[in-house]
Amino acid sequence: MFSCLSLLLLTAQAPLAAPPLSERLETWKREIEQRGEQLVVVRIETDPETSQVRIPPDTPRRALLAPLLASPGLAGQFVQTHAMTLNQQAMEGRIHFVLLNMARAAEFKDAEEPLLAHEFGHAWLDALGFRAPDVTGEAQPCLAIQAGDIVQHILIRGELERRGFVFRDYWIRNLDQALDALKKEGAPGAAGACDSLARIALWTDVRLALSADSWSRYGEFDQAFRRRFPDLAETVDELVTVLKAVDVTALERFRRALAYVHRRLEATAGMEDRPAAPEGPRIPLKTKACLMPSGWLC
Ligand SMILES: [Zn+2]
User: Fold this and answer.
1) How close is the Cα of 201 to the center of ligand 1, in Å?
2) pLDDT tens digits for 51-75?
């Protein structure tokens, strides 16, 4: 009797399952699922103070998702974002969980399509084998997340444009807010390694994807970051130079670029020595330009 009542209450409180998707998103989801994989969109209530997350009871494959979000490192990363995609291997194939952080829903409620499209891009790349480093079992999930984001975002931006998603307005709105917040803050407090990596990833994204023509505050952003985080500038400059020179649409180049970015971030965050040239044969570039001092991709 008691357990039935509890179950009823739980059901009554459970938010609606998957949000309705636009036609373009449905098409993309179908394409991913036609590969024998599953894409599950989940709205998750979070508490940014405690990093606690609440997965709706009716979430498909919940038993697979719950242990992942039980990791404090991963939950701590998720509560700070609008959305995150976790790719898991199940017996019958790969499952892509696209998680929306409902504690911050007010910031993206008018932009769910571009937000979900970005996350579908992560799932799509995983399905094609352009995988981000596995976060499970990592001592520093933020390192795997940021390294994967830096390289995957290059491909995602191209694919979103190809599919006709309008995503830059939402992104630039977020950047405007981040820049305003940065300029309002006093002296930066002691930042953890994960904060530094998130700044590097954001800054690299902006440098690779935007310009003074596409974002009026591009120069202001770059100057503000250089002033506030001078110790990160060398890493960002190097990542931008390397990634501009490499065509990561080829899987082998993608993997090598990702391995390099992972080790470069590790070194910047003091987790490992700065990497030298990667092992193995050098990869021919599509472009002739090769500006890297170490010449690692030339
Ligand atoms: Zn992303």
Assistant:
1) 10
2) 889 999 999 999 999 998 988 888 8
